[in-house]
Specification:
The protein contains 4 helices and 3 strands; from the N terminus they run βββαααα. With 120 residues, it is of the alpha+beta class. A hairpin with a 2-residue loop joins β1 and β2. The protein is elongated. About 7% of the residues have low confidence.
């Protein structure tokens, strides 16, 4: 499936680090004129991700999402950045890295236990 994006219609890009089952990876979100994320480029899918990221000549918008904003981006890939950029009570997602790893390990252990019970 091909998708063509007019980068001149973009207001900027956000570069974040996300964590999933495969580990941590970088992500670039493109922002439209209204300040809403509309396209996501994941480092997991491209061997030349750094070239792609650097080749997108858009202003990099500094954005430290709260936990709820991070989850909305992770699962829905849509967030109005302008609404949330003024917030003074932002919590850095790095604060919650240990919690993310605990949740991922818990899910893996749950699946492992489920598989062992069904094999026995």
């Amino acid at each position: 499936m091909e998708k063509t994006i007019d980068l001149s219609a973009c207001a900027g890009k956000i570069i974040l680090q996300e964590t999933g089952i495969q580990g941590s990876y970088n992500v670039v979100y493109l922002i439209d004129e209204k300040g809403i994320t509309f396209f996501k480029i994941m480092g997991l899918h491209y061997k030349n991700f750094e070239d792609l990221k650097n080749g997108i000549n858009l202003k990099t918008i500094r954005f430290n999402p709260s936990v709820s904003q991070y989850l909305r981006l992770l699962f829905f890939e849509r967030l109005n950045i302008k609404e949330h950029s003024d917030s003074l009570k932002k919590i850095s997602i790095n604060t919650f890295k240990p919690i993310k790893y605990i949740v991922i390990i818990g899910i893996i252990l749950f699946i492992f236990r489920f598989l062992i019970q069904n094999i026995s």
